[in-house]
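Quick one, tokens below:
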């Protein structure tokens, strides 16, 4: 992986240290997942998506974290990247995080798109609203969907078309994500369902849970 912010290096180390039976996202996968969460037409609160990052969605699964301190540290790093990504989108300087195969210096955008697709699956009906949007937004959404199909070897494009799209994916992804975010903000300004991204600070055990439940973090998402 190329040079990444220190927060992501720390997060990568924390996720890699989770039990072997856990299934956390890769950093590039989480970055794509986060992009999908942020540009989704509907606001998705952290309490819903946070457990998906560390693979803690099964109710009867063994505890992923050894103690509350470890959980707080991971959540803090995740939310720090959430806030930084939201700020980058707001400033029009979004830059996706990709893994790179050092053998051929090949950008592995597939992990990023897998994460983005996971976010889309949380609100499939909401994304459908973009199909009736302006042409640029439709092109951006169709392009990202086409990349998910290429990643799954289910592309309906001809081989030359799929190969060309895959080759240019690293440059296209950032532009398409910013296009979707611009549409979402326009809808919010017009009083439509889209909402601006909230900003969440570091979450302490006795702070209100960022999922919006009204409970303390330790008695809500922090109890997972």
């Amino acid at each position: 992986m190329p040079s990444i912010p220190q927060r992501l290096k720390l997060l990568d180390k924390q996720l890699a240290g989770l039990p072997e039976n856990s299934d956390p996202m890769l950093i590039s996968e989480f970055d794509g997942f986060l992009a999908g969460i942020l540009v989704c037409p509907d606001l998705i609160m952290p309490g819903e998506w946070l457990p998906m990052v560390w693979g803690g969605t099964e109710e009867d699964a063994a505890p992923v974290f050894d103690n509350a301190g470890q959980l707080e540290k991971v959540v803090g790093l995740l939310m720090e990247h959430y806030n930084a990504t939201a700020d980058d989108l707001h400033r029009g300087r979004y830059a996706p995080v990709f893994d790179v195969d050092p053998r051929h210096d090949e950008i592995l955008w597939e992990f990023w798109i897998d994460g983005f697709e996971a976010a889309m699956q949380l609100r499939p009906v909401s994304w459908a609203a973009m199909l009736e949007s302006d042409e640029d937004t439709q092109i951006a959404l169709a392009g990202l969907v086409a990349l998910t199909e290429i990643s799954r070897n289910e592309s309906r494009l001809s081989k030359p078309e799929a190969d060309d799209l895959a080759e240019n994916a690293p440059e296209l992804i950032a532009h398409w994500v910013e296009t979707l975010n611009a549409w979402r903000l326009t809808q919010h300004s017009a009083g439509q369902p889209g909402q601006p991204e909230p900003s969440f600070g570091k979450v302490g055990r006795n702070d209100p849970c960022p999922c919006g439940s009204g409970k303390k973090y330790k008695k809500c998402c922090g109890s997972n």
